[in-house]
Design a protein that fits this description.
Blueprint lengths: L12 E3 L4 E3 L2 E3 L2 E4 L2 E3 L2 E3 L6 E4 L4 E3 L2 E8 L2 E3 L2 E9 L4 E3 L2 E8 L4 E3 L2 E3 L2 H9 L2
Parallel strand pairs: 1-4, 2-5, 3-6, 4-7, 5-8, 6-9, 7-9, 8-10, 9-11, 10-12, 11-13, 12-14, 13-15
């Protein structure tokens, strides 16, 4: 039968619903985004990176991350080198490159979806 991937990652940083960030943002570890980021979001290599974008969260820029769970809105391209989950409230307007993906009923995706091969996923992890 189907096996569901467990999302066991720690949230190190919270961008709350009242917060707004403009410009390139670089973080390490786990991030929960309930606020707004206007600019690209990248994850440093020193810790396994993961993001949870809550229902009120907005990212207007490109996202490069190993693991992402999206319940909010992303207006930009996504590279998820390990796992991407788009929940029923999630909206993505941009191209998606992924290794493993799960899209819940009701999610909205407007863009091209590209499955990464193993070497592409490994390269994406190293180039962040």
């Amino acid at each position: 039968m189907f096996k569901k991937k467990k999302n066991n990652f720690q949230i190190d940083t919270l961008i709350d619903s009242g917060m707004k960030i403009n410009g390139l943002t670089e973080v390490s570890g786990g991030l929960r985004l309930d606020g707004k980021i206007y600019g690209d979001l990248n994850f440093k290599e020193d810790k396994p990176g993961a993001i949870v974008i809550g229902e009120s969260g907005l990212l207007k820029g490109n996202l490069a991350v190993p693991t992402a769970v999206i319940a909010g809105k992303v207006l930009g391209n996504i590279i998820a080198s390990e796992y991407l989950e788009i929940e029923s409230t999630g909206i993505v307007e941009g191209d998606i490159s992924y290794n493993l993906i799960e899209i819940h009923a009701g999610a909205i995706v407007k863009g091209i979806m590209i499955k990464l091969g193993k070497t592409q996923a490994d390269k994406a992890n190293k180039n962040k």
